[in-house]
Amino acid sequence: MSAHGPADDAAESRAGYAATTEERHRERMQRKKELIDRKIARATVERGVLVVNTGNGKGKSSSGFGMLARSLGHGLRCGVVQFIKGSFSTGEEAFFRKFEELDYHVMGEGFTWETQDKQRDIAAAQAAWAVAARMLADPDYDFVLLDELNIALAHRYIALDDVLAATAARPERQHVVITGRGAPDALVEAADTVTEMRMVKHAFKAGIKAQKGIEL
Fold it and tell me: What is the pLDDT of residues 124-147, one digit of tens each?
């Protein structure tokens, strides 16, 4: 006859608790799956979306380029217009220019505190918008990234009404991503998906310069 002591009772209790916990977990996950499946079943509309990445935190452009990578991975025809960046080379430019399915335009003269020439900045922004507007009107483009357009809008280098009209009239299945801090309220309202990046910490504030692969 085998002995059955307190240690065995404790082991059985732990095993029973683990089984109960596992069963509760399965039940929660099943309910969650049913909820998500219902939401997926209701999402039947298929059209292009307007995405706005804004806020003071890092990652707005990085997110846009991540979506660009996905689009290229699906064989979509893509276009990029960078409105502010342009005075220095970045890793994303060096990488994405390799793709034949992508039209890549760096139209900015650099950040406004670098140029210190408002008319020059306005001219560069207007030239960039002319390229962007052409892409937005062309059904051959499946995905268009307008990087730092919000900055040009905030400085009123480009008319907000022109941007709203062009994005509203774009081909039905064309996706558009607009990045940059300070997105105008009207653009946020018009967008399908809006993400606001919030800065918690940034290496630059600790005196660490921009790094290749992170900022460059």
Answer: 899 999 999 999 999 999 999 999
